[in-house]
Write a structure and sequence with these properties.
By secondary structure, this protein is an alpha/beta fold. The protein has 20 helices and 17 strands. The strands form 4 sheets. The protein has a 5-stranded antiparallel sheet, with helices on both faces. Strands 7-6-10-9-8 form a 5-stranded antiparallel sheet. Helix 9 (227-239) packs across helix 16 (436-443) and helix 19 packs across helix 20 (521-530). It starts with a helix and ends in a 6-residue tail after the last helix. It comes from Nocardioides ginsengisoli.
Length: 536
């Protein structure tokens, strides 16, 4: 531990130690700021905006700035009383959407308050990150009066060596006003949601009402739903804009239909009716019950569960898997010999994994057996159909029964069930479960590695936590922020790709990346926020 750390007062020294344990360096702690969207219409913003408007009016023309962060440590509002402070923040990239968590940038009067849940003053050199040592700050936590959950932090900052002794009472008074407005807004919203729940009440049908800080269910729903199911319904409720109907399979294996409707006048409140499907699912794909010798094609991007799906569909025993990798390692002759032996045996199922990677002569060999339409059955696995060419495309075209798998990012509603299954497969304790917040964060990720990547995240958690609830902070850092749910236009996707490549090329150094792109650092930060670039 450094002499500099030893000279600090206790709460600051402890914060520095946490920052060092997180692998941060004072000289580079701000080099890798991450950005994400913040909820501009949520309860915190609604409660804080009028209070901050009045406070900022009082501070107009002074050297003071106000910063509001949400419970995830993201800057939700930033206001500066003079141009000097505004330029200083712009140059550092400290703007709306930036993460000021202690583990991300070290000791500061916002992230440290979130960590300790108590107010703190951080003067000049007490900041961990060197560029922040020009500032003195006072941060105060904002708690929801009903749930006592921390909703965010309000901070006043200035370019000065020591914070003014007038700041604590000034900020505390503003926070008290914000908390009162949170309480008032919660009462109105909860009353309206409760009225909708009571109006829909029925003993036979499962009914769930979900709000920002409220969850209500009747006995039928309590008997029907598990913790994973409730987490999934929370995500569905957050996505409902008007009305929606979706079929789901609960963790018990029961198929249900969920009718969800937004409740007007509430802050994100939704009413959900859950109805078991008494009949077997109509129009179940014929692929789930394949004909005796009919070939089946399983297509999708790497990691989307192609191999697992192929094995599940191979219900004619015994099942043998021949992969394109084996042809590359052992040679085409050995692969052809093994395939021929299986064909002569005339029984079970052969999964050919990677027909798009096989040499043409082996594709022709598989095609010749397929044309005979006799045992063994073939289950063929390949990448996305649009990427197939030549003989592989022709072979895939022979399969009229197909299972086309989409990327994991396009089916976020499956993540709670996938996580539960992965926990069981990894032998995790039955009490270990992911909270709705953690599942929500996972469901918003881009998942370029699909199921393999999700499993790696679940394994990471299992290695570090044996029992209890897995919260957002227990996830790997790159998976705690939310990626955009909207689809970008082609030109935006192209710009996003160029920026991400520049950031990767310069190891996340935004100054060098901006220079390489021919734009200012401020413009780069703005584009990162607009394009939701948080992981690179």
């Amino acid at each position: 531990m450094t002499t500099e750390t030893d000279a600090l007062r206790d709460p600051i020294a402890l914060s520095w130690r946490r920052a060092e344990l997180a692998g941060l360096s004072p000289s580079s702690a701000l080099d890798h700021l991450t950005y994400a969207d913040v909820d501009l219409s949520g309860p915190l913003q609604a409660a804080a905006s009028p209070v901050l408007d009045e406070l900022n009016e009082q501070l107009e023309g002074t050297m003071f700035c106000t910063l509001l962060v949400d419970r995830d440590g993201r800057i939700a509002q930033r206001w500066c009383g003079d141009d000097g402070s505004r330029r200083a923040f712009d140059n550092l990239g400290v703007d709306v959407g930036a993460s000021l968590l202690e583990e991300a940038v070290g000791t500061n009067a916002l992230g440290t308050v979130l960590e300790t849940r108590t107010s703190i003053t951080v003067n000049g050199r007490e900041h961990f990150a060197v560029p922040l040592r020009r500032f003195s700050c006072y941060g105060h936590p904002i708690f929801h009066p009903t749930t006592r959950r921390i909703e965010g932090v309000l901070d006043i900052t200035a370019l000065m060596e020591e914070a003014s002794p007038l700041l604590p009472p000034l900020v505390a008074r503003a926070v008290a006003d914000i908390e009162q407005r949170l309480l008032d807004g919660s009462r109105v919203s909860d009353k309206q949601l409760l009225a909708a729940f009571q109006a829909a009440g029925t003993r036979r049908r499962a009914v769930v009402a979900i709000g920002q800080d409220l969850l209500m269910s009747n006995q039928a729903a309590a008997d029907l739903l598990g913790s994973t199911d409730v987490a999934l319904l929370r995500m569905l409720a957050s996505d409902v804009r008007g009305e929606a109907t979706i079929d789901l399979t609960l963790e018990s294996g029961l198929a249900v239909r969920v009718d969800a409707a937004r409740v007007g006048g509430t802050r994100g409140g939704a009413l959900l009716h859950v109805e078991p499907l008494r009949e077997p699912r109509a129009r179940r794909p014929v692929l789930d019950r394949p004909l005796e010798h009919a070939p089946v094609l399983v297509s999708g991007p790497p990691g989307s569960g192609r191999s697992t799906t192929a094995r599940r569909l191979a219900d004619t025993q015994p099942v043998t898997v021949l992969s394109a990798a084996a042809a590359l390692l052992d040679g085409s002759a050995a692969w052809a010999r093994d395939f021929g032996a299986l064909v002569r045996a005339g029984q079970g199922t052969v999964c050919v994994d990677g027909i798009d990677l096989l040499p043409d002569d082996l594709v022709d060999l598989v095609a010749s057996h397929l044309a005979e339409q006799r045992a063994p059955r073939l289950v063929l696995v390949c990448g996305p159909l649009e990427g197939l060419t030549g003989r592989a495309a022709a072979l895939a075209g022979e399969c009229t029964e197909r299972r086309l798998l989409t990327p994991l990012a396009s089916r976020p509603h499956e993540i709670p069930e996938l996580v539960r299954a992965m926990l069981a497969d990894l032998g995790a304790d039955s009490s270990l479960h992911f909270t709705p917040g953690a599942l929500g964060a996972l469901s918003s990720q881009p998942w370029p590695g699909n199921l393999r990547e999700l499993r790696a995240v679940v394994e990471h958690v299992v290695r570090r936590q044996r029992t209890g609830a897995v919260i957002v902070d227990e996830l790997p850092e790159a998976y705690r922020t939310q990626e955009p749910s909207r689809r970008l236009a082609p030109i935006d996707r192209a710009e996003r790709t160029v920026i991400v490549e520049a950031l990767r090329e310069h190891d996340g150094n935004k100054v060098k990346a901006a220079q390489a792109l021919g734009i200012s650092r401020t413009t780069l930060y703005a584009k990162m926020r607009a394009l939701r670039i948080t992981v690179y």
